[in-house]
Amino acid sequence: MITTREFICAAAWHMLEQPSLRARFLIAPEEERYEMLHEILRVEPIVANLYRQATADIALESNGQRVTIPQGSKINVHIHSSNSDQKVVGEQPLAICPGREIKGTNIPGMLMSFGDGTHRCPGAYIAIQETDIFLQRLLAIDSLHMVRKPSVSWNEMIAAYELRYLTVAI
Which CATH architecture has domain 2-48+82-169? Predict the structure, then answer.
C-alpha cells in the first residue's frame, strides 16, 4: 500500500539521521522494535485526517465545557494533533522517544495513526511487520548512509504526505 511505502521511507529517514535510534533498533527484540516503529508513526502519521459521520448525537466534555456533535455531522479527526496531545503523550510530543509512557487506558502506542474502532486499518499489523523486516535488513548494512534527504509533497487524494527521492548508498 502507498501508506506503508511512505512509512518505511519516513522510518528509514529518522533512523539514518539518528544513529542511536538505528543502533537500538538493530539490537532490540521484536516487541521493542514494534514499539519504536509505533512511536515513529505516532510522530509521523501518514494520513493527516480521518473523516467520519456521527451516527448518533455525541456528547463530549472538554476543558469543563459540554459539546454535542449532532447525528449526521461530518467529523474531521486531525491525526497529527491527536497524536501530539501532551495530556496523553507527555512532554516533547513531537520528539521520537521509544518507550514513551502513554497516559490513558486502552490507547495504542501509535495513537490514531491507524484509525480506531470498526474503521481501523485492517493492514496495520502487516504494515508494521513488513516495515520491521525490511528495515532490519537494510539498516544492518554497516556502510549504509543517506546521500539525499527525501523531498516532501502532499497528496490531496489520500490526504497524506509523500516522500520521494530519499537516496541511500553503501
Answer: Orthogonal Bundle (1.10)
